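Run log, item B.
One chain of 448 residues. Sequence copied directly from the ordering sheet:
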Amino acid sequence: MDWLKPWIASGIFLGVIGIVLLDWIHLTIVSLLGAIVLVFLRVIRVEDAVQSVSQNYSTFVLLFGVMVIVRAFEPTGIFSYLAALIARSAKDGKRLLLGIVAITTPICAVLPNATTVMLLAPLIPPIASALETDFVPLLILMVFVANTSGLLTLVGDPATYLVGSSINLGFADYLRHVTPGGVLALGAIVVMIPWLFRDIWNLKFKMAEDAAIAQLPPIRYPNVLRSGAIITTFILFFFSIGQYLPNPITPPAVALMGAALSLLVIHQNKVDTLENIFRDIDWSTIIFLMSTFILVGALEKTGVIHYLAGILSENLGTNVFLGSLIILFLVGCVSSIVNNIPLVVAMVPLLKQYLVNVDLMDAGSLAHGFTGSFNTAVLPLFYAMMFGATLGGNATLVGASCNIIAAGIAEQNQRRIPFAQFLRYGVPITAVQLTVAACYIMVLWLLQ
């Protein structure tokens, strides 16, 4: 009977991916059902399922902490203020488009990009209406910037943190080795804006002083917002130096401390209730992540990951440079139609097993909880996976959570973002960004 388990685990994993891709059932529901079916059929034991989740606890803690911080300070109106600031200063299309890049980039570098789009995207349609321009291209530009900005820091996107934490990559090390590539990818968007969005780029707005946008919305609870700025500074500081302290502090621990301080500030100033804040946390994403770890844990337990790693070993051997380029474009293409979270969760153990098979990594590094350093010669493989998983989501309307959120906001404003229209913007952006990332990976390889 055991010979059936790898087939069942593979079939359920691919089935979940397929249903998510076709959008038949909400991704959280189908992934949770898939995980439960695996346990019900005894493909994976309950103990193993719990272990698969607990071994990756840091990802959930980081996401939860950041979600609490964002939700806690939302009542201050800072996000509405920033969006209105863009509209007020937009004398022409050039300033409007570059303003969206300027506002979205720093926020998405330190906060989950999907959460940022949820906060900022609803403000785009009324701004576009006041300026008498189409809001759909503006939403599309925002999701491109949000997806790409996730590469700027280790905590900018769940996929980057999942991969980075799997190789014990610290926040400061990430800034040195991966962030420059993210900056180049973001620069590719800026360079292409005048061409891709030329209809808006060349506009001169007559409504820039309209009463609807002339007055900036007030900042509520200014003292609370100042406390939020101090907490954010605290978080970024310890993200950067935490790994170098005598007793290292990990990003999840820092995020959790920031969340606790934020809740204290909000509670003491009677801005909102804890019940409201916790109710608005994106529990769906957290449950989706947990279920995905169980699905991939079943692939590991049944030997599927080991088998696929053997195929990589036979075809790539020790050519990590070629493997990095293949991983970059392969993951980038797959990520354009498949959510990047289950993709990287499955790819990380696959790459590690491949590297052990070809003697480029010690077998001990496969153990969960391994805290040693990884051979620098193999790190470009994992960097390539980060770039592919993050940038590939820009290609299609279903490639990333931000894209789907923006499409929903467009529909709430009586407009659709056609799949073909998104492709016209997304495919050129993704092709250029992946090419830029490939060049960056080559430079990293040469500088080793």
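Observations after the first pass:
- The chain has a mean pLDDT of 83.
- Residues 2-447 form one domain.
Flagged for discussion on Thursday.
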